[in-house]
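Hi again,

Forgot to attach this to my earlier email, sorry! This is the prediction with adenosine-5'-triphosphate bound. I've pasted everything inline since the attachment limit keeps bouncing my files.
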Amino acid sequence: MKHRHKKRTVLGSAALGALLERIQTGTFGELLEDWRWIFHYTKRYKWAVLLYVILGVLSSSLGLVSAVASKYTIDIITGYQTSRLALMLVLMIGSALFSLALRSIISRVSTKISLVVNNDIQAAVFETVLDADWLSLSRYANGDVLNRFNSDVSTVASNAVSWLPNLLIAFYTFLATFCVILHYDVTMGFLALASAPVLLLSSRFLLRRMRTHNEAVKEMNSTLMTFESETFYNLDTIKSFGLMKRYGIRLRRWQNKFKRLSLEYNLFTIQTEALLSLLGLGVQMAVFGYCLYLLWSGQIVYGTMTLFISQSASLSATFSSLVEVVPSFLSSAVSARRIRELTQLEPEPHISASSQLDPLAVDGFQVCMSGLTFSYGQGPVIRQSDFIARPGEIVALVGPSGEGKTTMIRLMLGLVRPQQGRVYLKAHQGFEVEMNAETRHLFSYVPQGNTLLSGTVAENLRMVREDATDEELEEVLKLSCAWEFVSLMPEGLYSRLGERGRGLSEGQAQRLAIARALLKDAPVLLLDEATSALDVTTERQVLRNIIRQRPNKTCIVTTHRPSVLNLCQRVYRVMDGQVTQLSEAQSSQMVMDF
Ligand SMILES: Nc1ncnc2c1ncn2[C@@H]1O[C@H](COP(=O)(O)OP(=O)(O)OP(=O)(O)O)[C@@H](O)[C@H]1O
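C-alpha cells for the complex follow:
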C-alpha cells in the first residue's frame, strides 16, 4: 500500500513536470482542448459532480475534526485537560465513521457516472466509426481501433468525472491540514512540507522517461492487439502453412519486448522511489525530532505531538494526491486525443435528395459513370472512363487481377468518390443522384470472401430484413440454389452456423450470401466474384433466377470466369486504368479462349 503510494507520488510529480513543460512549450492549449472535449460528455452530470465535491470536502473536514478531537482526547487522558472527555470521544469516533460513510457514497457516485460516460463515449465513437469515410477509416488497423474504443475510452471515462473533484478536494484538504498545523506551530507547518520543493524539482528529470514509456506502451498495445486479432482471424491459413510455431515465436518476441520495457521502467522507478523515500524518511525524522524538542521544552503536550505527527504525514500524502491528479489529467488527455482522432474522421457524404429515388425503385435504376478518374492516392486506378448498366441487364466487369474491378464496385456503392467525373444513379424519369451513403440502400452487395456470421441460417438472412417470413427465406434460398442443401440440414433454416459460416463449403457460403442479397430485393445487385466457387451450371442457374426474380433489377458482376459472359448484355474490361466496353465478337472470343 505504502509502496503504491510512493510510486503514485513519483508518477504524480513527473506528470506535474510534464504539465509545466507543456505550458512552457505552448502545447497546454492542446491539453485544454482535449479536456474540453471530455467536459462535453461530463457536463450533463454537473450536479452529480458538484455533489461529489461537497461530499469530498465534508469527508476530509470530518477527518480533520476527528484528528483534532483525538488530540484533545489524549490531552484529557494524560491529564493536561480535564473536561468533556465523552464529547471528545463521540466527536472523534463519530466524525471518523461519518467520513468513512461519505467516502463510500463518493465511490458509488463516481463509479455510476464513469460507467454512463464510458457508454456515452463508446456509443458516439461507434456511431462515427460506422459513418466514417471508408478510405480514412481504412488507414487504421482493426486492433488499433479496438484498442482506442475499449482501453482509451475506459481511461477517459474513469478520470472524466473524478479528476476535477479530486483536484478540488485534494486542494481543500491540503490547505485545511496546512492551516491546522500552522495554527499550532508555524515552523512545524513548513517543516512538514520540506519534501515538496524536491518533489517538484525532480519532476522535470522524471518527465521524459515517463512520457516515452507511456507512448511506447500504448503503441505496443495497439500493435499487439492487431497481431492477435489477425492471428485468430486467419487461423486456418496459419495452420495450413504450418506457421503455428513461427506465430508462437512472434508472440514470445512481442512479450519479451514488453517485459524488457516494463522491467527497465520498473528499475528506474525503484531507483527514484528509493531516493524519494530517503527524503521522506528524513522529513519524518525531522518532524519527529522537532516534536520531541517541543515536548521536551514544554511548548506542546502529548495530544499536540500526536496531531503533528499524524497531520504532517497526512499533509505530505495530500500533497502527493494533489500531484497525482496530474497523471490522470495527462493520460486522459492523451487518450481523449486518440479517441478524437477517430471521432474526427471525415464522415461520408449524405445527399438528402437521394430519398426522392425511393418511390422510383419499381422501374429500376441505371448505374452510370462518366469521365471518371479515381486514385487511392498514388497513381490513378481508373482514368477517364464511362460505364452504364440498365435495369433488366446483367453487366460484367472482367479483367486481370488488381486492375480495378472491386474499385469500380466501391465507387458504385459510394464508399470512395472519384477525383474527376461522375458516378450516379439515374431513374426512369431521368432524375439523377450522385452515389452517396443514402443511395447505398438501393443496392444489394455480395462482396468477395465469406461474409456469413455466427448464428442460424435464418438469422444470417434476416440480417437485411428482420420481418421476412420462413416462406420468403425459402424462396430466396431456392433462387440462389441454396435450398437443396439447407433443406437437408438437420434443422433446416434454423441450423446453426459457426463464425464466418463455419460448417459450410465455400460455394454453399456464397449461395447463402447471394440469398441474403436477394432477400433485400434492392433494385441494383452487385456481385463481386460472388459465384467464383460455384460450378458453371449452378452459376448460370443462379444468374438466370436473379433476373427472373425482378425483371427491372440491374445486376453487375465482376468475374474472372468468362463462362457467364454470354448471359450478360454488356461486358466491360477493366485494364491499364481504362474501362472499355467489349464488342460481342470480343466477348465471344473471350468465352472461347477460356
Ligand atoms: N484500400 C486501398 N488503398 C490503396 N490502394 C488500393 C486499395 N484497394 C485497392 N487498391 C489498389 O487498387 C488497384 C485495384 O484494386 P482492385 O481490388 O480494385 O482490383 P481487382 O480488379 O478487383 O482485383 P481482383 O480481381 O484481384 O479482385 C490495385 O492496384 C490495388 O493495389
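The chain is about 65% helix and 10% strand. The chain has a mean pLDDT of 81.

That should be everything now.

G.
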